[in-house]
Amino acid sequence: MAAIKALVFDFGNVLCTWTPQKDTAVHPKKLKQIMSSDIWHDYERGRYLSADECYRAVEKRFGVKASDLDSAMTSARSSLQPAGITLDYLTDLLKRHEALRIYGLTNTPRPEEGSVQSIAQQWPIFDRIYTSGSLGMRKPDICSYESVLREIGLPAEAVLFVDDFQENILAAQSIGIQTILFQNHEQMYREIENHFGNPVSRGKEFLASNAKSLDSISDNGITIHDNFAQLLIVDLTGNEDLVQLERWDRTWNYFIGTPLLTTDTFPNDLDTTSIALSTLPINESVVHSVLDEMLTFRSEDGILMTYFDRTRPRVDHVVCVNALHLFCKNGREHEVMPTLDWVLKVVRTHAYLAGSRYYSSPDMFLYFLTRLSGSIRDRSRRQELLSLLKQHVSERIGIAGDTVALATRLIACGMLNLKNPRDLASLLSTQHADGSWPTGWIYKYGSSGQQIGNPGLSTALAIKAIECSRPETSNEENQSRNEVSKSSHEGSMNEIGLRWGSLIWSYLKKLGDILPVFR
């Protein structure tokens, strides 16, 4: 992704707000027809010498009095207010990135340009504001974007465009401009920030600043202290200083301290134990003694079970994968072939797509399976597994998912040399301002189905996913994204305006729930 050197903002809904009046002189449905017409589009392109000339053309075709249309415009104009918090944010952004340029691009007819001059002058952050009336072209006309690019002297990929209408975003994207579809101000701030700085460095800073307090959380907001997520964070980062573990001599328990949201007593399990013994520096004799014990907990089919507890005869294919990894890593895969062969059957038949008793996401299964593939010594089974993984991971590319689903999928893609820019873009766009990623669901209680996530683990997975997809981010601070080159301010503020067509649309939408068509 190219370094951003300029931001180009739409105005209506993005940088300006308004309070709609209760009464309007023009019925919303009728105004929808007017704003969708060639008359209004030509008005925005500056092809009418005056507002009155346009209004008279509207009156002739639509039967709406010019005076009533003028009244509707006046009502919206009088309620117009700048989005102060957002403009303050952009002021701060310029302080942090002094070389950055900020422009406006608005569908505004010439007669309306001067009406908001005083408001715009309160925020001297724009290098220039381009109006459709002055350009002689409007969004989403491709020529309007190309004209602005020529004026500012930047390639499309160096420009980030923010607009609240998909039609305008699509047109900009089609010529290579980077874009943000505005949904709300917080979302816009987050996505802008994600275009500056190194996402990996920001994520690592979050983990470091929250070390020893990276606890899990249930889907109903209860904090859970568990070894499992902590161990996976260590596995991903190689840094035990980030976590707080309750260490066990041999087999491990999922929980740290008292179990929550489950039975009062909770047995040690093969899943947590396998992650611990394959991640931490454990004495080899201890590892093999635990493997011996695991072999005593197998189902009637000879498949490894989940708990070191014969009263809980549970089999989970994801747990099996993690236990298999420990056996294979220690040269004992020949002792668990029934389990390995069953897991291969689960993959071949796509049986994993519905999730498992303890894992909802099929991507978690494929991630752990990719992790396992590197430790299998049986050549034929390893080759079959790798072939299956490439097929099945490829099938998952582009499917919607939370942070954990996207990140585990991307890590698997990286290990299998599969390109996945689509999911990478989705993952990058969701990074929070503090450097973390939204909590994704990792594990669930088998009895209740209650989901468990961990913001630290979600962030660690996202970091690893980006490193696998963009190796350069782990080796450098990607300073080119911060050191954007600044040319001198060109032009003046004499073309300030607002995209009045879309302002009126949104103004009346609040009154009549209109869905704009062309803005």
Care to describe what's here?
This protein has 22 helices and eleven strands. The protein has 519 residues and is α/β, with parallel strands linked by helices. It folds into two domains: 6-196 and 481-512, Rossmann fold (3-Layer(aba) Sandwich); 200-262 and 342-477, no CATH class. The strands form three sheets. The chain has a five-stranded parallel beta sheet, sandwiched between helices. The two termini are 28 Å apart. InterPro entries: HAD-like_sf, HAD-SF_hydro_IA, HAD_2, HAD_sf, PGP-like_dom2. GO terms for molecular function: phosphatase activity. Pfam families: HAD_2. This is HAD-like protein.
Q: CATH architecture of the largest domain, please?
A: 3-Layer(aba) Sandwich
Rounded mean pLDDT score: 89
State the CATH class of the largest domain: Alpha Beta
How do the strands line up in the largest sheet?
A: 5-4-1-6-7
**Biggest pleated-sheet summary:** 5 strands, parallel
Tally of structural domains: 2
- Return the CATH topology of the largest domain: Rossmann fold
By CATH, the superfamily of the largest domain comes out as HAD superfamily/HAD-like
Number of β-strand runs: 11
Assign the structural class, choosing from mainly alpha, mainly beta, alpha/beta, alpha+beta, or little secondary structure: alpha/beta
Helix content: 40-55%
Global Rg: 29 Å
Instruction: Give the overall shape.
Output: elongated
> How far is the first residue's CA from the last residue's CA?
28 Å
Low-confidence stretches: 474-519
Instruction: Output the number of helix runs.
Output: 22
